Amino acid sequence: MVKNLTPNLGQRYRIIALISVIIFILDQATKVWVQFTIPVWGKGLTIIPGFFDIVHILNRGAAFGFLNRHDIDWQRPFFIIVSLIAMAIIASLARSKEDDGPFYSAGLGLILGGALGNLLDRIRMGQVIDFLDFYLGDWHWPAFNIADSAICVGAACLLISFYQHRRKRVPNHI
Fold first, then answer.
1. Residue range 95-126, pLDDT digits in tens
2. Distance from C-alpha of 79 to C-alpha of 62, rounded to nearest angstrom
3. What is the pTM of this model?
4. Distance between CA atoms of 128 and 35, rounded to whole angstroms?
């Protein structure tokens, strides 16, 4: 007999809540550490020379520096509203009757935790703290944070879940 590994609705809520709380705490703790350890826009902490530093960058825009401009002032309310809409969508998806497996709950929890982490920064400071700086030579990937990482990994988990669910529903044709 195969045990059903998919959680019921109550378990799904607990999984999503646990993952989102862990991500939120990790995100906020790392941002506080960066705030008190590394000067804003100053010399960062080299972790892997020529590849990875921890820096302190303030970002008014979205993930990876998108719309990080000081000549526009609508980013704060816009991204607060987007975060609230994303959380409402996550709540709706979490309540759905159909269970798409462990990647589904993990994805929702990761996205929710990331959204909450960046939302708190935007409400508190009007911007988020980015600090993970990957680069090769003079080429830098835009700095990001734990919340951004969780949102991206969560989106990948949801895509995997949707793909797995679709494969279950569509029979293989020979």
1. 876 666 889 999 999 999 999 999 999 999 98
2. 7
3. 0.83
4. 11
